[in-house]
């Protein structure tokens, strides 16, 4: 029976509530309030973004080093942000060595008497992790060994198995959300998009199973988004997270994202280039998915074996299982853990034996960036917030050979305020040309950038922010906006009309409300633009945010509709 | 399995709040019962699932173990907590709906003010008595949002509440209550009665949901329901299967049955009032000769409302009289 063990044998005489509580109480842990920010010594800032800052701090009580993630409370019209509440509630229920733990919440009160009326600032307190996987992979001096990759993969799958077993969909699986410390422990972080999974959890040997209810498809950062989501399957399963694991696995092997699409259609295209175009055999029923309407791809076989030849058949086999087009047959975490890849030499490393690296954090890079931050080019038919070339295609402006010119493209360059330059490591010096030469031929083909630098990370289209199952019209419209020219096919009977009417007038207040309310969503796509939604919070230039804001607007101006729309919108995911 | 169990009140918390010189225990009982009943009524009017209303009431009692009773108006805390609980659930309710419902329940037309038997004959409610003007709506809303922050802070963001209701149904199935060998319909009857006991316990000032785990609450409710309906349960000590000791079961059985007496006592004290407020409590304290309303912890805290808002509210309340 699923009951805490302390209940099994209360030593009787528990006749008064008090006596009972003495026996059963979880001591001070019961419903204690938040701790104070003064319980922590702030050591330094780790990152910053639209939704708040992340600080490194030491707990005065425990002496442990923690990360404090600030939850910005603007003039929240609906009180405490719902997404934050959900994330907190979820995290508090989870307990697994490979899931980032929410230690507690800390509160900072305004001390000045004039500020008394202002809301307090809330922080999420989590253990401090030295790196995120994405940052680590960007570090040219870090090269993962096979045992190391196996070790991380095992931990990732263990964490995911736990999540899925507890009926939770993560929905934002990506390297930037995987934190690693110097003890070799990997933890899954950022549950801002997670939600309860209403269908049976996966069982061994049966892939992801089937879902019976609809979920919003506006989840997962594009590079890690599975084909069924790109084709708008609404009854998706835990298998969507496994696709992300496949992408992360590939990324660890080759050292960079393997499927870096610059738009949703492009993402599908490069997925099919890698694993082959869908057929009734490889992806049964794909034709009937809403997003597959009118799609045609010249048949193409999988190129997985060619592309990952050098990593051996075990790796390719697992990768193929994870990157299976058919979400019903895609391996689940339980089975993936049993894959022969983990049982053939070289065997997985023990976490404690892994080499340690210098901290990989975003702030230093971003400091550098903000100095020369220029607003990004206006989108010209590109995706939201992205110039046609992405940040990486910019011509050199800073004399070092290549640039961080667009203000956020430079995420790979760890210009360290804290660390003196050393050996070119992450300090913006790794010159691309040799890298380019090393690249296998297949890579050159699908890179938009002739110098082989990966394109900027995709912004999660703002509507990906999981804000909810909007009425179709809204989503479609916004999607079309994202893509610039309307897609050839019309979606779900919604007229292909762009109803966006920019209005800076009377309605602007409302728009601000929306922004604030969706604060966390906002940070998500801005963060994703930076590819580090947990750790790297790039301040996106205001202009750009405005643009998003406008896009996001629903052209309903009547006061009366407002509440209705909001109620419908924000709470559903 | 964290999601099947609850954090429980500590001995110090229970001891402090009940023996503290803040409020006489009987008064505390009254506040708990009346406010929990208010939340329950609001949950019904808001068409929230009972699971959400139940969670709200558990959170309400938890909050009062951390923060003082007199910090905020009881009905405001109730409204804020139901707003918060609904917000994190699958069926959120807008601030507008919640303020409307509470305005109605606190108005002279409130069904809470009448005895159940008189409800049928009562004249239709007077809408003017619960009309919420825009300014009053805004001040009410601001109060709710302010208290929401206080609640989250006091609870350390632990908003999860495990309820015994689904467990109870599972236990009943395990006990074969719904099997064909039992008189038709009897199983359903027992289940209904069990849920009734569990819902009643939510209103109990004894805070059973704060001192006992859901498994024990479910077991005790089944025990009582089975006794009421005369259904035969196994002769052996079946409750042990559900992690409930005999002593705990006995305590809960008594506790769950004791609400009636407490309510009778409190109804006598508060008379016709359907909802009690801080000023009622202060008045009563004066009558009892306990403190003058300014004693430690019995202070009226108005921090949530600024002067400006207060002024607006007063102006606002003038309007109906003149118009």
From TrEMBL, chain A:
Residues 365-573 are annotated as: Disordered. It is found in: Nucleus. Keywords: ATP-binding, Kinase, Nucleotide-binding, Nucleus, Serine/threonine-protein kinase, Transferase. Transmembrane segments: none annotated. PROSITE patterns: PROTEIN_KINASE_ATP (PS00107), PROTEIN_KINASE_DOM (PS50011), PROTEIN_KINASE_ST (PS00108). It comes from Venustampulla echinocandica. It comes from the Eukaryota. GO terms for molecular function: ATP binding; cyclin-dependent protein serine/threonine kinase activity; RNA polymerase II CTD heptapeptide repeat kinase activity. Residues 451-460 have a biased composition (Pro residues). Residues 435-450, 461-483, 508-533, 541-573 have a biased composition (Basic and acidic residues). It catalyses: L-seryl-[protein] + ATP = O-phospho-L-seryl-[protein] + ADP + H(+); L-threonyl-[protein] + ATP = O-phospho-L-threonyl-[protein] + ADP + H(+); [DNA-directed RNA polymerase] + ATP = phospho-[DNA-directed RNA polymerase] + ADP + H(+). The keyword Kinase applies. It holds the Pfam family Pkinase. SMART domains: S_TKc (SM00220). Belongs to the protein kinase superfamily. CMGC Ser/Thr protein kinase family. CDC2/CDKX subfamily. This is Serine/threonine-protein kinase BUR1. Residues 382-393 have a biased composition (Gly residues). GO terms for cellular component: nucleus. Its main location: nucleus. Residues 40-342 form the Protein kinase domain. ATP binds at residue 69. Its EC number is 2.7.11.22, 2.7.11.23.
TrEMBL record, chain B:
Residues 310-323 have a biased composition (Basic and acidic residues). Residues 286-323 are annotated as: Disordered. One of its GO terms (biological process) is regulation of transcription by RNA polymerase II. InterPro entries: Cyclin-like_sf, Cyclin/Ssn8. GO terms for molecular function: cyclin-dependent protein serine/threonine kinase regulator activity. PANTHER family: CYCLIN. This is Cyclin-like protein.
